[in-house]
Amino acid sequence: MYVELKGINKNYGDYQATKDANFGIEKGSLVALLGPSGSGKTTILRMIAGLETPDSGDIIIDGKRVNDIAPADRGIGFVFQSYALFRYMTVYENIAFGLELKKVPKAKIKERVQELLELTSLKGLEDRYPNQLSGGQRQRVAFARALAPNPSLLLLDEPFAAIDAKVRQELRTWLRKMIYKVGITSIFVTHDQDEAVEVADQIIVTNKGRIEQIGSPLDIYKNPETPFVTEFIGQSSVIEDYHRFHGFEKGNYQGAVIRPEFVEVFKRDNREFNNYIDLSEEGEIIDILFRGNSLELTVDLHGVMITAHRSLERREVKVGEKVRVLIYRLFAFDEDRAYLLENENLKGRNINIDNLESYLYNEEYDFFVI
Amino acid sequence: MNWVEENKKKAGKTKVILIIISVLFVFFMLVFPLVSVIANSLKEGFGYYIQSLNTKYVKSALLVTLLATVIAVIVNTFFGLLAGWLLTKFSFKGKQVLATLIDIPFSISPVIAGLAFIMTFGRLGWANPILESINQALGTDIQIVFALPGVVLATIFVTFPFVSREIIPVLNTQGKDEEEAAALMGAGGFTIFRKITFPHIKWATIYGVILCTARALGEFGAVAALSKTRGKTFTLPLEIDALYLAGSSDSITAAFSVSSLLVIIAIIVLILRNFFEHSEKVKGEKKEG
Ligand SMILES: Nc1ncnc2c1ncn2[C@@H]1O[C@H](COP(=O)(O)OP(=O)(O)OP(=O)(O)O)[C@@H](O)[C@H]1O
Ligand SMILES: [Mg+2]
């Protein structure tokens, strides 16, 4: 493990921002700290950087306990949420600043800055001031500045938050490529699960100052371990009386989550599902959203709202239309764990899954989240 | 005529009325009195004007005023930067109290400040024994009350918040991200201040210094309480007062001459201020573009 947190606690006054955080990060990996606003992501990042001091616990980087090591000596590059570029310095001066402090010879600095300008495609902009740059360019300057002194760990606080949606997509891909190219262990904070899933190879989910789950995006998606993760990941609708649906019995659970991939919405006269009508629920389409490559339906199952996806290739549906809904599986959860429940009625039956949204979940298929 | 035009016309009328009121007000309250100062100072001719400035008392007063001003500006700039930095970039218990304390000179009458110094350092003041024991130990005869140090202290007290009040809002809007970024790269406190913080507040500091200067030059109340010797510890405003109270028509004209000196200095300060404001604006526009 390259970075390790052991039993970290942090209070701001009587508010506990971090509760017993434990995790480890492999060298060379790209990790996302994912959680809702105020869940303590920034706090964790700042403690690793040394900008905050934990009340208890150990932070270990590269085998050394760094709690008492000055931030500047931890070998960390930090990209701030607001970039925090030095407003009264040019792009060149911004990137060179860390190197100058390290008393690197002028010629070497120049070489390194040029190298980074090239890496981040900022050539030609070195004499500009930060307020003469676009959001994306600023982010790249912040990135170059953080990388200049060759840190061994890169921390990024919401690196895409200040950038508009369209450019953000590009930058995500760019950042991922860049980090792999440089080969630096990186942790970035985000509250956007798409971003985490797309960029990171490990995700740490935080909630109310606690670490809920650590795992690959696939893991987090497929095997949510806690009620919070179950709800937070994916487009999940939380339901209390899940047991009123066909094929699910009441267990010792507090509630359940039905993801769009877990359900099939079909018209009553659909021949493919002819045999399943009795096993399906009656529903009414409340809302239809066009999602580019598919439709997102909100379906009312006698008072329970669920979300479903529908391919554009299939027959048209309308708001107010009565449809049938087949529920393949759901995540049920109790106080502290989540469980995948399969529809009992469908066990052993062979549905032609090719048409289904839920192919995503079949064992024979590779799983992708896009 | 439709209502848009009507509104425009109404707005035009309002504008004219506002302009007239403002101009009249400024004229009667400021321009007219100031011009009459200059006019009165020249009543007995230019020769007399020069002569009335060229006395032992006026020269001494000018010197004392400049000395007190320069020291006050230096001390308060240093302290203002320190306090502004402290209050915006660090958090600690009692920060709010400290911020409020710094503003006290704004809300307290200068005369009270002067009396406070007398009660502290005067013969009956609680700090007098300390002062005396210092004098005894060093074989010196430092006096504060009714002496130059008192004048300087009073001036410092009165102009205390000017610099910090100018820079605190600027520092507040700026946040502390840049400083943190620099610290993470290994910059020490002073380097951070010099390279990161100071460029942000350069203009606000200059502006604060100018205001501080103007205020220090004109201070009367606090200094009056602490300065009793004409030709020795009197500042220009005190000298003007003394001349005026002397009552003869000659001395009153002399009072106006000395006053004109202060008016001229004030105008120079104003011009400097506008110059700095303007150049900051130009710079700002260039950066935006
Ligand atoms: N300096 C501070 N003083 C007091 N409370 C703080 C301080 N910094 C953070 N907090 C509190 O600690 C909690 C966690 O904050 P943190 O900034 O780590 O959240 P976050 O997960 O990064 O949220 P966001 O996604 O909104 O940035 C919040 O409730 C916040 O109000
Ligand atoms: Mg945050």
Give the helices and strands, then pairings.
The complex is a heterodimer of chains A (370) and B (289).
Chain A: E1 3-12, E2 15-25, E3 30-34, H1 41-49, E4 56-61, E5 64-65, E6 76-79, H2 91-101, H3 106-119, H4 135-147, E7 153-157, H5 165-182, E8 185-190, H6 193-199, E9 202-207, E10 210-215, H7 217-222, H8 227-232, E11 237-239, E12 255-258, E13 263-266, E14 281-290, E15 294-301, E16 304-311, E17 322-327, E18 329-333, E19 338-342
Parallel strand pairs in A: 3-8, 3-9, 6-7, 7-8
Antiparallel strand pairs in A: 1-2, 1-4, 4-5, 9-10, 11-12, 12-18, 13-17, 14-15, 14-17, 15-16, 18-19
Chain B: H1 3-41, H2 46-53, H3 56-89, H4 95-102, H5 104-107, H6 110-121, H7 128-138, H8 148-159, H9 162-174, H10 177-184, H11 189-218, H12 221-226, H13 236-246, H14 249-288
Helix pairs in contact in B: 1-14, 2-14, 3-8, 3-9, 3-11, 3-13, 6-8, 8-11, 9-11, 10-11, 11-14, 13-14
The complex binds adenosine-5'-triphosphate (ATP) and magnesium ion.
Magnesium ion (MG) is lined by residues 41-42, 157, 189 of chain A.
Polypeptide structure, described:
The complex is a heterodimer of chains A (370) and B (289). Chain A is of the alpha+beta class and 370 residues long. Chain A contains eight helices and 19 strands. In chain A, strands 6-7-8-3-9-10 form a six-stranded mixed beta sheet, with helices on both faces. A five-stranded antiparallel beta sheet of chain A has the order 13-17-14-15-16, with no helix packed on it. In chain A, strands 2-1-4-5 form a four-stranded antiparallel beta sheet, covered by helices on one side. The C terminus of chain A is likely disordered. Chain B is flat, with a radius of gyration of 24 Å. Chain B has 289 residues and is mainly alpha-helical. Chain B has one domain: Orthogonal Bundle (MetI-like fold), CATH 1.10.3720.10. In chain B, 82% of the residues lie in helices and 0% in strands. Chain B contains 14 helices and no strands. In chain B, helix 3 crosses helix 8, helix 6 packs across helix 8 and helix 9 runs antiparallel to helix 11. The interface between A and B is medium-sized, with 25 and 18 residues. Adenosine-5'-triphosphate binds next to strand 2 and helix 1 of chain A. The site of magnesium ion (MG) has 4 residues of chain A, from helix 1.
